[in-house]
Amino acid sequence: MSALKPVRAITAAQCGLISCETCKLLARPAHPEDPGHCPRCGGELEFRRRRSLQRTWALVIAAAVCYIPANMLPMMATTTFASSHADTIMGGVVYLFASGSWPLALIVLVASVMVPLGKLIALIYLLLSVQRGMPGACHQRARLYRMVELIGRWSMLDVFVVTFIVALVQLQPLMAVQPGPAVLFFAVVVVLTMIAAETFDPRLIWDSAANLENEDD
Questions:
Q1: Residue 49 neighbours by CB distance under 10 Å
Q2: Residue from 67, 64, 26, 22 nearest 198 by CA
Q3: Which helix (H) or strand (E) holds 119?
Q4: Beta carbons of 91 and 105 less than 8 angstroms apart
Q5: Separation of alpha carbons 109 and 132, rounded Å
Q6: What is the pTM of this model?
């Protein structure tokens, strides 16, 4: 008795359907070249986001380039009556840990260093997995994409902290706090990674898996 073959899932694209990016409704396109609009919300239908991989790669590379000065340049410059000094992100983490504020140091380390770097690594992994047609783990990659999209808005912690400190600590000429050049680069990294997550089309993950199954057949 021959073993039963596992049933392979059929994608919406293989059924001639298209998913609305706004309300997630599965609809039948009006025309192969011009899908039309969603019958429920009126949003424009797209089979796949145009040049999704190229745009996401460009944004990820730009964010990776800006990530270096964001961590190397001073994040905040403090000027007192006697002296002045500037702190990078890691310098601030070390200072907070040495002064006993290790919970705050841990929060800054995770939100300002590990989260942006983790988002870059995750996006690069998703791009390479789609381009190389990596088999399996589609559900895990889809969850990873949703996680990157979710935590993107919480990566501006350093910018918010510096903004509040600059607004509150202005005791010139005794003491003044000014934002450093790293604030701009850090904000650019956060914005670019958020846009990169939006330009990446997660449906490509399932397309690559479907292409591998067709090749096996």
A1: 17
A2: 22
A3: helix 115-131
A4: no
A5: 33
A6: 0.73
Phi then psi for residue 77, to 5 deg, are: -115, 125
Chain length of the chain? 217
User: Which residues, at least 6 apart from 10, have a Cβ–Cβ distance to it below 8 Å?
Assistant: none
Question: Which domains are delineated in the chain?
Answer: 12-47 (no CATH), 49-216 (1.20.140)
pLDDT tens sequence for the chain (217 residues): 444 454 555 666 666 677 777 787 777 777 767 777 887 787 777 767 778 889 999 999 999 999 999 888 887 776 666 667 677 778 777 876 787 777 777 877 887 788 888 899 999 999 998 888 777 777 888 888 888 888 766 666 555 655 555 554 455 555 566 777 888 888 888 889 889 988 898 888 877 665 555 544 4
β-pairing verdict for 76-80 and 170-171: unpaired
Alpha-carbon dihedral sign for residues 202, 204, 208, 213: positive
